[in-house]
Amino acid sequence: MLNQVQFVRQTAAVLLAFGIVASLLPGLAAADIPRPNIVFIFTDDQRFDAIGVVDEAMITPNLDRLAARGTRFANAFVTLSICSPSRAAVMTGQYGSVNGVTTLDRRIADASPLLPKLLHDAGYRTGMFGKWHLGNKPAEIGFNEANYFHSNGAFYSRKAIVEGASVTVPGYIDDAVADWSVAFIKRAHADRLPFFLWHCTQVPHMDHTFDWPAQQHYLDLYDIAKMPLPLTWQDDLSGKPPYLKMARSRTRALEYGYDDPARIRRHIQRYRAATTQMDATLGRLIDTVDELGVSDNTWFLFMGDNGWLIGEHGFTSKVLAYEESIRVPMILAGPRTRPGVDERLALNIDLAATILDIAGIDVPDAMHGRSLLTPTNDWREAFVYEAPTPVLGTHPVIAVRDSRWKLIRTYDPDTPLRVAFTELYDLQNDPNEMRNLADEPEHADRITRMAERIALHDRTIRRPRTASEPSFLK
Length: 474
Known about the structure:
The chain is α/β, with parallel strands linked by helices. It is 30% helix and 22% strand. The protein folds into two domains: 4-374, Alkaline Phosphatase, subunit A; 385-460, 2-Layer Sandwich (Arylsulfatase, C-terminal domain), CATH 3.30.1120.10.
């Protein structure tokens, strides 16, 4: 493990190469700088454009504050777009096919590295507050402290585990999560311990009634008549897997009334209002760090756990490999960082390596992700999205996305090795993924090359790697 002097010097060099830091605590001796604090904010079902710095119609002043302090990753994605797998991906830095979490409520494999445990063992006080959606308990993962609720439920008067006891938490649940996180930050600061905070919101995930019951004040901020109707809401799905016409993503959307523009706009308004209400709670974390005078030694990382379809292609929900499902907002803001936008393909599996890099802890070889502090001239050109387990009515899907193209392979759930349907999209000329080019002869070679990346992923990621094998990330 690096000592503090080595950590400061090496991190400063990396960040300067990364281009987001003007200077790192000038005027202080390196040995005077304590191990950095880390706040990780993980929101639920927040799609990539549900943030003000991307869409000015969105009201998220506190997330915008973080973006103004650091780097926003404009092309951030998850490796499997659903709650438990995305959480496990961040916890382990691994794909779900390796850490064992490819659907809801599964346990992380015993052999997988655990980010909280690595930080705890290095002297961090570790705290987890908010939504929990894994088969493991927080203490098993490496958290010193945890107040949490499992999966999804009510926005108000939510049942939760608080200090080990099951209680009903009064009021708005994300206010309570902020209370718990603020108290944790203050305790760690008073005890002069570096801290790692895992702050998971419930919102903007739907509640148990399949709605977003935002308070009226926040609903009033958004005029239903001005809500943008998705351009693809009337997609007849002619270029997509036939099963999707009767899949849960489409039938549930019809139950919500997504064949009616007014009903779609209503859901968009409520989703946006709920996101704004959630954002208001995040300001307390930022304010607490500032008020304690530790902002010069505290890093904030923010990411949505997956995207969310609200009428695109006539769908609702997630898991499917379309952009609104797999693309998420991501921000990294640290001491003396300056605002900027990074266009690299960033993944949720990169966060564990990034956090360990910030903390000066060696990144385990078993992790598939890479630190986002790595210089931009050595980065992935494409990534694989894998959803191998049928969930929420989907069929198994493997996809490859680069800066322009996306190949989606849907597999037969009864014969998992058989490709049942292939999609190819030119995201530069068709960002809404309406024209499937897979059957056009001029793209045959491209499909072959992208399929080879899936095969490489199977050889190097989905089974243990050896030193002689090529790395998918190279």
